Amino acid sequence: MKIDITSIDGGTTGSIELSDDIFGLEPRQDLIARMIRYQLAKRRAGTHAVKNRADIWRTGKKMYKQKGTGGARHGSARVPQFRGGGRAFGPVVRSHAHDLPKKVRALALRHALSAKAKDGGIIVWAGAEVDEPKTKALRDKFAKIGLGSALIIDGAAPQANFSLAARSIPSIDVLPVQGINVYDILRREKLVLTKAAVDALEARFK
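Request: output the structure for the sequence above.
Response:
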C-alpha cells in the first residue's frame, strides 16, 4: 500500500510503499486479543497477599473442651471461622505471566499494524525532530495537524528534544522502534511512524 510521507508541520514531502506482508494483512482479532492479554498479564505486579491461619498472632490452644459445652467443637482461634482469624484461600504473591510463542507474538504485531492501516490510522513522517524541547510549541504543531492521541515510533533512538517536548502531552507516547507493541498501538487513535521506523520494521520482518 502507498502512503504519503508528511512532516510535523503537515506538509507532504513524498510517498512510500508499505509492505503488504506487514501492513496489508486481514486483521485477526483473536491474535490481537491474545497478545494484549499476554502483555497486561505480564505487567501485573502480583504482590497481593493476605494472612492465612499460619500468619495470625494468636494462641493455637484448644478454645474449650471437646464435649459437654453444648457448642460446636472448636480448636485453634486462628481459623477462618472467627473474627480476627486467618483468611481461607486468599490471594498469594505470584506471577500472572503466561507463555505465548515468539512466532505468535510477531504475527500479532503484524496484524495490529495491519488493523491500524486498514482503519486509516497510520501516519508516516520524514522524521520526528524539533529544534528546542518546548512542549507548548510541539502541542501547537500537533493541534494544527489534528493529532490528539498518538503513538509515535522513531528509529533506534528518538531525538532527545522531541522526547522531552512530547512527554508532558497527554495521550502522546514516544517509543523507539524496538519498543513497538500491540497494546500501545491499539490504545492510541493514530500510529505515527518515521521513515526510519518503517525501514526498521520491514527489515525486522523480512
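The beta strands are 2-6, 12-17, 122-125, 150-154, 172-176, 190-194.
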